[in-house]
Every structure is written in structure tokens, then in C-alpha cells.
Amino acid sequence: MRSLAVLIDNIIDIYTWIVIASAIMSWLVAFGVVNIRNRFISVVVDMLFKLTEPVLRPIRRMLPNLGGVDISPVILLLGLFFIRSLLWEYVWPAFMH
């Protein structure tokens, strides 16, 4: 069971970095720093969008309109940190005895 907890923790860690990369890439595209006509950049942006959008879309629907500011990645990251905290609080102590 401990190996399952470690696997879930690692998945949360990887997905956290994917969400951060997606947010940064969206800023870079929005401010014209990177050119999405570049094939590599286009593939990276598309992959990050496909990995994060299914989770971010329901969060965006619940949030009020903040005038173009998208805080859904922040809400998602807080949720991921909360789940990780619960995992360490309830699963790990059971294996320490």
C-alpha cells in the first residue's frame, strides 16, 4: 500500500509541473514571446492544453468572471497540494507503526 501512496504522490508531483508549464507557456504565447507557428512549440502547447484543459475547464465554470484573469491553474494547484497533504497525513502514518 505504501508503494501505491508513493506512486500517487509522484503522479501529483508530475501533474503539478505540467500545470505550471502550461500556465507559463500560455503567458509566453499570449505576450508573443514564443511563436506557435514553430512546429515544436505548437506540439508542446497542444500537448499541455490536452493534459490540463479537461481538469481546468470545470474549475473555470465554477469561478466568477475576473475580467480576463484566469486563476484556475492556481485553484488546481491548491487542490493538488491539498490532496498530497491528505495522502501524507492519513496514508503514511498507517505505515509508520
Give structural notes.
The protein has three helices and no strands. By secondary structure, it is mainly alpha-helical. It has helices spanning 2-30, 39-62, 72-96. The chain has one domain (2-96). Helix 1 crosses helix 2, helix 1 (2-30) packs antiparallel against helix 3 (72-96) and helix 2 (39-62) crosses helix 3.
Q: What is the overall number of helices?
A: 3
Helix content: over 70%
Give the helix/strand class. Answer: mainly alpha
Beta fraction of the residues? Answer: under 5%
Distance between the termini: 14 Å
The average pLDDT score comes to 91
Categorize the overall geometry: globular
SSE arrangement, N to C: HHH
Ranges where pLDDT stays below 50 over 5 or more residues in a row are: none
The major pleated sheet works out as: none
As for the number of domains, it is: 1
Question: Which terms summarize this structure?
Answer:
mainly alpha, 3 helices, 80% helix, globular, 97 residues
Helix and strand layout, with pairings?
Layout: H1 2-30, H2 39-62, H3 72-96
Describe the structure in brief.
The chain has helices at residues 2-30, 39-62, 72-96. With 97 residues, the protein is an all-alpha fold.
